[in-house]
Specification:
Blueprint: H1 2-26, H2 30-40, H3 54-74, H4 78-81, H5 85-109, H6 115-124, H7 130-139, H8 148-158, H9 160-174, H10 180-211, H11 219-237, H12 242-254, H13 261-286, H14 292-319, H15 327-335, H16 341-352, H17 361-386, H18 403-406, E1 409-415, E2 436-443, E3 446-448, E4 461-467, E5 474-480, E6 500-506, E7 509-511, E8 524-530
Antiparallel strand pairs: 1-4, 2-3, 2-4, 5-8, 6-7, 6-8
Helix pairs in contact: 1-2, 2-13, 3-8, 3-12, 3-13, 3-16, 5-6, 5-8, 5-9, 5-14, 6-9, 7-8, 10-11, 10-12, 11-12, 14-15, 14-17, 16-17
Length: 531
């Protein structure tokens, strides 16, 4: 049984990867494809798995949301977010409260729901989904005018804690446990303990990374992984907001300089992608399509009200006083109010609580998320162009923390041999191309930052830096020289034609060859080829 379960899990992950490629080509948001896949394997799907354990789903989705929240901060580039931090913070806090309140009023007066359940739904769906926003901006490379992208990224990355706080508050009211003093203390504890824990854990983690060299490949990733878990669990134990703490830790560590940050960006990018797949797939598993006819109309009504009234009023009420955001920009920010992972987790939280819900709460939230991702997610590039908010000169990847890691520069080393062209010459006497910089000289273990008068000697190792080169038509391959083969015992110049030999590995030695280098059986070759 375990083997079959593992095979099924692997098949599902492979299908998600395939759907990611397909959806990006045809313009459908990837997360929508994961929901549909979950429905295919859901209770009434083509391959029914009969899954309806909301408590288990809540635990899994909570863990997944923790990593999504962390990466929302870890991937945010503070230099680009700083000019709009006030606006983004207000949208993430006051904007969430206004959206929840207006949506609650609509549910009560238009749909005739009870007061508390109305505001509970408003709280559950009040935040903008970071995973969806990040995914669309990255995949479509959507550069936007007037710092719109960093504003959206920071808002969507930091507003879930406030939606979570409102959800917890409404659930406590429905349980009859809320008092004026209790509510005041809960709000204070959520914000204060969450923020203090986040700052404290981030500073402690930075101190450890600065002071100690974590040995062993991958162990730095495990260290940060444990920091992420602690950043959520510690404040939760003392009544703080774990999601707020996690986001703060993410943004502080993501904008710190420490060795191995590039690998961590790639690591958590993969982890977050898996968490997104998990949440939206679980949503599809829990869905009950037979109840959709009853849930679709309320979901459409709530979606239309949020898109046309609640979100625009909240955004415009916050951004208009700044007097530097034109109407078309405010309209775009209003449109990018996608509901997603957090709404799912908070809806499951409500389903597992002891409160009595009078409406098809989860199915309505499901349909609302489905509509939001499919319509708003698909139309976002088109709406951005229609509002003339697309800036072709702006690279949206610059707003993410891994931008500098993905482009720019690359280091290389040159061994200076005695009596070579560089031996005994000063740096200013070298004929170095303009796009290459001599950045460092290593001499007998000592590291020297060179200047024009620095004299180079035989035995030095010169570290040069130049711009990186990436080309889908050029790639590297590795070959072994076979005994008796056409390369065995012959020079590289005599066997040209299969690609340029960039590196030769001979035993424990690695060196860059020239045309006269004679190859031997067992040599490992790294060749450059083009399609």
């Amino acid at each position: 049984m375990t083997t079959l379960f593992l095979i099924l899990g692997a098949i599902i992950i492979l299908m998600c990867i395939w759907l990611n490629n397909v959806s990006s080509r045809i313009g459908i948001p990837t997360l929508l494809a994961f929901i549909v896949l979950g429905m295919v394997f859901g209770n009434n799907g083509l391959v029914p798995l009969h899954f309806d354990d909301y408590a288990f789903a809540k635990d899994i989705c909570t863990i997944a949301l923790v990593f999504i929240m962390f990466y929302g901060g870890f991937g945010t580039r503070w230099d680009t977010a700083k000019p709009v931090v006030r606006e983004a913070t207000l949208l993430a806090s006051l904007g969430v409260i206004l959206t929840a309140g207006l949506t609650g009023l609509f549910c009560h007066f238009a749909l005739r729901w009870g007061w508390v359940e109305s505001f509970l739904l408003g709280s559950v769906v009040s935040s903008t989904d970071a995973a969806s926003v990040f995914s669309i901006l990255r995949s479509k490379k959507l550069g936007l005018r007037n710092n719109t992208a960093p504003m959206l990224e920071m808002e969507s990355g930091s507003n879930d804690p406030f939606a979570h706080m409102l959800t917890v508050l409404m659930l406590s009211i429905m349980n009859g446990k809320a008092t004026a003093l209790g509510v005041s203390w809960m709000l204070f504890a959520q914000l204060a303990f969450g923020a203090l824990c986040g700052v404290g854990i981030a500073k402690l983690a930075s101190w450890v990374l600065d002071r100690f060299n974590i040995k062993g490949e991958g162990y730095d990733s495990l260290f940060i992984l444990s920091v992420v878990v602690l950043s959520y669990a510690v404040p939760e134990i003392i009544g703080g907001n774990g999601y707020l703490s996690t986001y703060i830790v993410g943004i502080m560590l993501g904008n710190s300089d420490f060795q191995g940050r590039k690998a961590l960006v790639n690591f958590f990018d993969g982890i977050t992608g898996l968490m997104q797949v998990l949440i939206f797939f679980l949503l599809g598993l829990l869905a009950r399509p037979e109840l959709f006819p009853r849930a679709i109309l309320p979901a459409l009504a709530i979606f239309a009200f949020m898109s046309l009234v609640a979100r625009p009023l909240s955004v415009m009420g916050i951004l208009t006083p700044f007097r530097k955001y034109p109407f078309r920009q405010q309209a775009l920010v209003s449109f990018v109010g996608l509901r997603g992972a957090a709404s799912i987790v908070f809806a499951i939280m409500a389903m597992t609580d002891s409160v009595l819900l009078e409406n098809d709460f989860f199915d309505i939230v499901f349909c609302l998320v489905l509509i939001s991702i499919s319509l708003q997610g698909s139309l976002l590039p088109w709406v951005s162009r229609k509002l003339d908010m697309v800036d072709a000169k702006t690279d949206v990847m610059k707003t993410f923390n891994d931008y500098s890691e993905a482009t720019q520069i690359q280091f290389g080393s040159i061994d200076i041999t005695p009596k070579s062209n560089w031996d005994g010459k000063m740096v200013k006497e070298l004929n170095i191309p303009r796009n290459v910089l001599l950045a460092l000289v290593i001499r007998n273990g000592e590291r020297i930052i060179p200047h024009g008068d620095t004299m180079l000697r035989g035995g030095d190792k010169a570290i040069v830096v130049t711009k990186t080169f990436e080309d889908t038509e050029t790639y590297l391959v590795e070959k072994k020289v076979k005994k008796g083969g056409k390369r065995d015992g012959r020079s590289i110049g005599e066997t040209a034609g299969e690609g340029l030999v960039l590196l030769v590995r001979r035993g424990k030695e690695e060196f860059i060859p020239n045309g006269d280098t004679v190859l031997h059986a067992g040599d490992g070759l790294v060749l450059l080829r083009t399609k």
